[in-house]
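Onboarding guide, step 5: your first structure request.
Type a short instruction followed by the sequence, for example:

Predict the 3D structure of this protein.
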Amino acid sequence: MFAPLIFILLFQLTHGQQLIYLNTLKGDNIENGINQTAPYSLFVSAQPDSDELLAKIFVKTSGNVTMSLQDLKNAKEDENSGFLTPFSVTSTASLISNLTDEQLESLKGFIYVTSSEQANDKNFRVYDVDRFSIIETEHSGNYTLVFLSTNLETNPAHSSTISHWQQQNDSVVNIYRGIPGNRKRFYGSHLFSNPIVWDPKRGDSKIFFFPNVEKFSLSFPIFYIKATNEIFFHIRPTYYNLDGHQTVAYNTTGFYMKTKTEQPRDVTVTILNNKKYNGLTGAILYGMMPTDEGEIILHWGSFNPTSANKEIVYQFIDHSIRENLSFSSVESFGGEFFIQYFILQKIP
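The system replies with structure tokens like these:
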């Protein structure tokens, strides 16, 4: 009687980009099989959901290891950090609950299911952005740092603020939206990088490394960082309003994004500037507007604004340092865009 229902559920989980949303589970003690090749690891982010309900949903392996989602949600390496302890599955596993379908449908959290390769990678780390955390890679190597956010109280929802960034000059860092793996990346590339490889399509590319990264926010339920060697930063479940921000270093980079649910607004960043020296001001823009009337506008000092009304990858550079830079949009509700800006000033 239940076989067709279970088969459909398995199909959805298999092609669910490694995320199982709790509101898709079936209750009343129906087994929800996890159709993933072992070994793999499970991580839970469910900040809006009550521990009382999560305590009634269980992961059960074929080896008779059982753990509630409440325990998985709270399985932190340190109570002062969001660094999650993986639940390792070496055979098969399923999810089961005596909650009703209606109770499960009210849940907002999700389970992140890794691949076998990720489960076996000691430098693959997963964090729940439900509290302040200090992120640090301790030694050289290739790291993948995944961040889960089910915080709906920030505006925009799922916001995470990154600050106090420190990075060695032999380290390469890229930030991506979504889940690491074989899935197609949004916009086909990273949204933020340090160093920046500038104008790679022309064959005369330059590499700009920035010793400083400005405080910024990301508003995604899940994003990840690929890093080589040592990096350090703070992350917290808040939103930082970049409008009115003043850069804190002469050679620096930062990031701004507008989500699909945000109304258009103007953002201005004041640039720390030593007028005795010249330099570069630039930006990389990605975006998708909902209609042909939508525009993303960059105001760079006295320069004419640059706009786009469809998905783009756009690079802009000015061989001078301006007092401020600004960006805004029109007819952009339902659209989104991402800007990495940078300033390189020749200070002896």
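Each response can be followed by summary notes, for example: Residues 37 and 116 are 7 Å apart (CA to CA).
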